Design the sequence.
């Protein structure tokens, strides 16, 4: 049984706690203690009201489902406490210097940093871009204005530019753009649209490379409690955990 510490007990945390399969939740931490306590009741783990006590407990993986800021605050401590780190708020790794430091610490302590596919698909073979040249990579994301925290009655472009810049302005919405960039080995271009007509989070990936062209369109069902988060994102963590100990590895 894999033992997990849950950092962040919001929407994704709930889905994880309710779908335990080959893992148990040993410890929980949230900046709002009541949230950790509520999920502890569901999962049987122990809630902690300070991070240092949480991270010292006996488990193998920290699942971060909190925020970009939480990764920056706690990522290093997780690894130094000999826990592998599963990062949902991957936008934190958009900062090149921070990422290098964190990866260095993981290497030093023999730990892994996992980035689940989150709300998109295709990260597996985009890694071919680290070997063969990619000419262009664009992520076009369309969400409801509410999930972007804005009001508009017509479709508007709210951001166009590099993934590493977009995540600074929209840390809760475009984590996938940084995951895409890390997989491909280049900073993706991003267009972020707000559209009152959409009920789902739509991610379109356009890639042109030495090995061919790729177009992927993901039409995501929103999580009931948080329209900014796609249900698929939570499922991708469960999938990752499900397959960690499987000797048959599918996909790159
Ligand atoms: N990679 C992806 O594809 C992808 C997809 C969806 C969501 N996300 C990211 O995953 C994270 C969690 O999403 P969610 O829908 O569960 O969000 P949520 O807002 O429902 O829950 C986040 C929880 O983390 C807690 N939290 C926030 N900052 C904290 C901190 N510094 N220390 C401790 N606890 C803290 C909050 O109190 C809250 O309970 C978000 O950062 C979101 O942007 C990534």
Sequence:
């Amino acid at each position: 049984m894999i033992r997990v510490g849950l950092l962040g007990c919001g929407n994704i945390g709930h889905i994880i706690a309710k779908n335990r399969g080959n893992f148990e939740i040993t410890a929980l931490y949230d900046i709002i203690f009541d949230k950790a306590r509520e999920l502890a009741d569901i999962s049987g783990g122990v809630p902690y009201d300070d991070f240092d006590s949480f991270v010292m407990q006996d488990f193998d993986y920290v699942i971060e489902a909190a925020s970009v800021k939480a990764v920056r605050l706690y990522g290093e401590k997780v690894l130094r406490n000999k826990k592998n780190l599963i990062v949902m708020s991957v936008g934190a790794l958009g900062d090149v210097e921070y990422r290098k430091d964190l990866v260095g610490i993981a290497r030093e302590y023999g730990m892994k940093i996992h980035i689940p596919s989150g709300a998109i698909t295709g990260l597996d073979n985009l890694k071919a871009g680290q070997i063969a040249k990619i000419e262009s990579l664009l992520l076009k994301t369309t969400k409801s204005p509410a999930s972007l925290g804005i009001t508009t009655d017509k479709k508007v472009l709210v951001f166009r530019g590099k993934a590493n810049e977009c995540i600074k302005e929209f840390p809760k919405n475009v984590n996938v753009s940084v995951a895409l960039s890390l997989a491909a080995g280049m900073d993706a271009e991003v267009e972020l649209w707000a559209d009152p007509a959409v009920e789902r989070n739509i991610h379109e990936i356009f890639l042109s490379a030495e090995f061919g062209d790729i177009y992927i369109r993901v039409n995501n069902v929103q999580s009931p409690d948080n329209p900014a988060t796609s249900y698929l994102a939570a499922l991708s963590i469960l999938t990752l955990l499900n397959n960690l100990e499987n000797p048959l590895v599918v996909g790159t």
About this structure: The longest strand covers residues 134-143.
